[in-house]
What we know:
This protein has helices at residues 2-22, 36-49, 62-70, 95-112, 132-135, 138-155, 160-185, 193-218, 220-234, 249-257, 259-272, 279-305, 328-335; strands at 28-33, 54-58, 76-81, 84-89, 116-120. By secondary structure, the chain is α/β, with parallel strands linked by helices. Helix 2 (36-49) links the parallel strand 1 (28-33) and strand 2 (54-58).
Amino acid sequence: MTLGLGVILVLLLLVFIMPSLKSGPHDLAVGVVGIGSAADGFEDELESAAPDSYTPQRFGSEEELKEAIGDRDVVGGFVVDETGIRTLVAGAGSTAISGALTGTAEAVGRVIGAGVSVEDVVPLPESDPTGIGIGGLAFPLVFGGIVPVVAFRKVLPRSDAGYLTGLLVFAAVGGLVVASVLMFVFGSIESAFLPVAAAMALGIAALALPLAGLQKAFGTKGFTLGAMAMMFLGNPLAGISTTSAWLPSGLGVFGQILPPGAAGTLVRSAAYFDGAGGLVALLTLVTWIVVGLLLYAVGMRRARAAGTTDDPSSDRDASTPTTLPVTGDVRQRAAD
């Protein structure tokens, strides 16, 4: 037992710490606007200053580059001309990536002897310039998906319709509550209240319904394994504070498959980019919701087939014999 728990502890350390240690710019899509040899020389110096960190794409004008940043096709870009290097960033997309782009541009500028300026194309609100509000949603999101599954099951142990309705209502209310706190308490968003609330509600539902389905179909063990996966994999690999592009490529992609990562991407897209770049995340969350409902339907069918409406999470051992009262006549016959 001690050895097994020690291995689990090591795995948890790796899952929670390794992404931070290995995070950073890697193959980030950036735009470059420039003419001929000036742009070619800049790209060569960009690779020398930050090897394997960026994948440059050429754009015909600064307006096209800004549009691509707003559509989240690229994380930022550089305009190279005779006046120097103008760095275009999207602070609302990721302050970590914006800082990396700025630092790289300054390093290249020192090498080629060019001045560097920075323009934030999609800035964060002044009341939350570091993006802490949305960046801190990972744990509340996971909490909001796990706890209602347990709470509503206790309150409504025999009503499947009431149980599922409770989870959906909580998801909607939770989305509104989170959006209200982000806007009116933290000032992390200045508009798009309803889109952010809807994105958060989808995220909570995409966590709660699969866990409810696992609980219904496989009992407490199914719920426990699902909750542990969301807590110990979905939470650290969500990349909500920095976006998945900042995480190691494999871990970042895996994190976006899980509900916390997809929800974080959708919330950020809804809050700052008018929904741009959020379609895949939206489809991912909807898929998790459908899977959760299907699992729940399977659990209900199994319960009916077994001739019981008891929830499998009660862990009742069906093989336990029922003790019947022994009457005096039975004792007498046994004695005879």
